Amino acid sequence: MNKETKLKYNEYRKIIDEHLDKYIGVFYPESIYESMRYSVLSGGKRLRPVIAMETASLFGVQIENIIPIACAIEMLHCQSLIHDDLPCMDNDDYRRGKLSNHKVFGEATATLAGDALLSYAPKIIIDNTHNVNSEIILRVLKEFFLAAGVDGIISGQIVDIDSEKKEISKETLEFIYEYKTAKLFQLAVRSGAILGSASDSQLDCLTLYAKYYGHAFQIYDDILDVTSTLEDLGKTPGKDADVQKSTYVSMYGMKQAKDQVLFLCERACDILNSNNIKSEILVEIVSDLAEGVKKCY
Amino acid sequence: MNKETKLKYNEYRKIIDEHLDKYIGVFYPESIYESMRYSVLSGGKRLRPVIAMETASLFGVQIENIIPIACAIEMLHCQSLIHDDLPCMDNDDYRRGKLSNHKVFGEATATLAGDALLSYAPKIIIDNTHNVNSEIILRVLKEFFLAAGVDGIISGQIVDIDSEKKEISKETLEFIYEYKTAKLFQLAVRSGAILGSASDSQLDCLTLYAKYYGHAFQIYDDILDVTSTLEDLGKTPGKDADVQKSTYVSMYGMKQAKDQVLFLCERACDILNSNNIKSEILVEIVSDLAEGVKKCY
Fold first, then answer.
1. What is the domain count for chain A?
2. Whole-number Cα distances in Å, B257 to A91, B180, B221, B234, B262
3. Minimal Cα–Cα distance from A287 to chain B, Å?
């Protein structure tokens, strides 16, 4: 990412961090709020909310109108990580370089903190999105629930878990990547675009961009699971092999996985170009991914 | 409940059952939909959605406008039961006379089915509430998220779990009953009333009614936990004593617990009477509770 784009990215990120901190206070019973804050304020890259903010800005949305939605998307992402890390799911002890939520607060509180975030996030949107037509807010909320539920990450996670220790088809793998990963990126671009009254064709184009980016992102994640360390990754590497999970890497081999990331990155940028959507950030997060993969060759 | 009121109650209940069945289809990946359906279509009394429908009808709301909200409230109730029953929480094997969700589908799917319902419910409201002003829908959604999250059942459950094997204050017990139980009844009356553009004082009065009813309901539940069988109760009795949970019964004794239920039931009816809110169903569900307790003397 070039210096100027990096600066803009970090400005967005700072706004997100400040608002997440502000939105989630600590009240009685403290443990639930502390558990929510532990995972939400854990210093992630804030990729999804930054994408939402950048997309909204492309359509002239005032920054204060997209902030609550961007924060809600990050809360949803954190909710899915807390629950995915539970012993009954992926049983992961580390996340973003820290102990996972249930290792610190226990399984009951971690489960409830995830549940709490699922209600807290849309409430943040309703409470803090001012000067936006109610129909538009309802449209964004619907996108949120689609991505959060059986039309989104839940189905991705279910099929992912069901696929452990099993041969799966290429279509099933595609489904997992689409639902478990791409849907949240799609939510990010779509929320920003809907708030900015984007046309249907602009919405389609951004959705396709997020699909390519999401798939590339997940394959890269699979590659790093093989090649990386706990320190670099912030979570336990080698998990996929441990639970005999089929990934793009295990099904197609490392070389083809890397090639596919580069191919998808190219398509993601092409779709922006050919639709005249000009965003340094949207282009450069894709380039960063491609650069990362190239280093693995 | 007299015959005529019972008939009306069962009419509501039938509408709820039919719509819950219709709203939750089965698609790929089937296991998550089946897990959701298993708990939602498990033949509960549908008390909360019936209360929502009855309250809405008092304010002249067309029945088709309250149905999606009533169903969403039942889904939320089921979500809380699925997660409460998990081994890391109350670890209950039975619910509504059947094996609990995780005993049939496993912990991972049960956790995800609960998560899924939390997004599915508000999506049902947005998709199916037609001819209602968007501001009103947003107001109802906000009530939903308040009841579902840290301002509602989540905080009730956290404090409940934290209170096991501990002496707790009367205030803490009140908090648990208020948040874990009363908040969902309050959501039911408030949603119906908001949809019917009730005045603030009517809203306050119904909220207070639901508070008294909710507390009475929970104390009665504690009494039944001591006096009832698995067959009658549909869930494992004696759980509170097993985990050394403080309840109204353990803290005040059985006699005072029963007296308190009757006292709260009287206050619930009084508040309706003195505010001229005339509903056979709202009165008779309270009477039924009082009758049930009288049989325990």
1. 1
2. 43, 18, 11, 22, 9
3. 34
The pLDDT assigned to B43 comes to 86
- What pTM did the predictor assign? 0.97
Which candidate from B29, B120, B137 shows the least CB-CB separation from A138?
B137
The two tokens of residue B133 are: 């002003």
CB contacts, 8 Å: A158 with chain B:
29, 31-32, 108-109, 112
Alpha helices in chain A (DSSP H): 3-23, 30-40, 47-58, 63-85, 101-105, 107-128, 134-148, 153-162, 170-176, 183-195, 200-227, 230-233, 239-242, 248-252, 254-274, 280-296
Q: What was the pLDDT predicted at B294?
A: 93
CA A56 to CA A112: how far, in whole Å?
Answer: 32
Per-residue model confidence (pLDDT) at position B20? 98
pLDDT band at B29; cut points 50, 70, 90: very high
Q: Does pLDDT of A45 surpass 80?
A: yes
| CATH number, residue B19 | 1.10.600.10
| Chain A environment of B24 (Cβ under 8 Å) | none
pLDDT of residue A165: 85
Q: Classify B234 as helix, strand or coil.
A: coil
CB-based burial, B164-195: b 16+ in 10 Å, e otherwise: eeeebeeebbebbbbbbbbbbbbbbbbbbbbb
Kindly list the residues from chain B whose CB atom is less than 8 angstroms away from the CB atom of residue A127: 142
In this complex, how many residue pairs, one in chain A and one in chain B, have their CB atoms less than 8 Å apart? 146
Token pair in block for residue B91: 């670890």
Q: Which of B262, B256, B255, B269 is nearest to B291 (CA)?
A: B262
Shortest alpha-carbon distance between residue A204 and chain B (Å)? 21
Distance CA B75, CA B38 (A): 12
Q: Which of B89, B111, B159 sits opposite A29 (nearest CB)?
A: B159
DSSP string, B135-148: HHHHHHHHHHHHHH
| Cβ atoms of B286 and B280 closer than 8 Å | no
- Nearest Cα of chain A lies from the Cα of B59 at a distance, in angstroms, of 24
| SS3 call for A254 | helix
Cβ within 8 Å of residue A67, ≥6 positions away: A15, A16, A19, A53, A128
Q: List chain A residues with CB under 8 Å of B88.
A: 106-108, 111
Contact state of B142 with A119 under an 8 Å Cβ cutoff: no
Partnered with residue A94 across adjacent β-strands are: A99
Rounded to 5 degrees, φ, ψ at A223 are: -60, -45
- Strand partners for B269: none
Residue of B32, B80, B115 to mutate for A, most A C-beta atoms under 10 A: B115
Check residue B241 and give its pLDDT.
Answer: 73
Range of the domain at B27: 3-296
Chain-chain contact of B145 with A120 (C-beta, under 8 angstroms): yes
Q: With an 8 Å Cβ cutoff, are B145 and A109 in contact? A: no
Partners of residue B116 in chain A, C-beta under 8 Å: 149-150, 154
